[in-house]
Amino acid sequence: MFFTSKRISAFLSTGVLLFSSLPVTAATLSPGVYHETISTTVGGYPQKVNKLSIDVTNPYAKIEYGVSNPITTRKTVTNLSKEHTYEKHHVIGAINASFFNFDDGSPVYLLAKNDQIVNLGNVSTNFNDYMYTPAAFGITADNKAKVGRYSLERTIAYNGSSFTTTDMNRLRSNNELIMYTDSYPEEKTRQNQYGIEVVITKKKKK
Prior knowledge:
Blueprint: E1 2-5, E2 27-30, E3 33-42, E4 45-54, E5 61-64, H1 77-83, E6 90-94, E7 111-113, E8 116-119, E9 135-139, E10 145-149, E11 155-158, E12 161-164, E13 167-168, E14 178-179
C-alpha cells in the first residue's frame, strides 16, 4: 500500500494507521502525510514503532496499494516504491502489509482494486492461525478508510448449475476447483494432465 502525492514523493505499501490528531513530534513528509517514531514496550521488550498518518481529506495525498508485476515476484518495499514513482505521482511512504506463500510467492491476504479481486488470499481453518478470521483494510470510493471482517462466496454458474470454487489464481491440488483470471501471473495454468480445464469466453454480438 502506498502513500502518494501529486507534489512530493510518497508511498505506502500495505497497512496504514490513521489518527484524528497528531503529536508535535510528527514530521511532515508531504502535505497531509506525517511520520513519527514511537518508543514503547511490548511483552516486556523495548520496541520501535514507525507510524505513518495521512489526512484522507487532503486532495494531494492518497493511499494506494502497490504490488509487483507479476504479482508473485518478491521485491523489497524500497524497490516497489521506486517502480511506482513517476511524474506527478511520487511515493513518500511505504508499509509492508502481507505475507507470502513460500511455494509460489503469491500474497497471503485478499487484494482488490477498483472492485476487482486481484488476489483471493488464504483463510485458515485453524483457530491459532493469523488468517482464521478473514479481515481486510481498504479505501472507499469517497476516500474513507475502512477495516473489518469480510465474507466471500465464490461460485461459478452455467446452464442452470452452480459450482463453489476452492480458490483462484493458484496451483490446483486434488479435488479442487480453481478459477483463473487475467490476474494470474503465468501464461498457462501449469497443471498436469489429470485435471480438466474449461475456458470461458465472452460471446460476441452478431
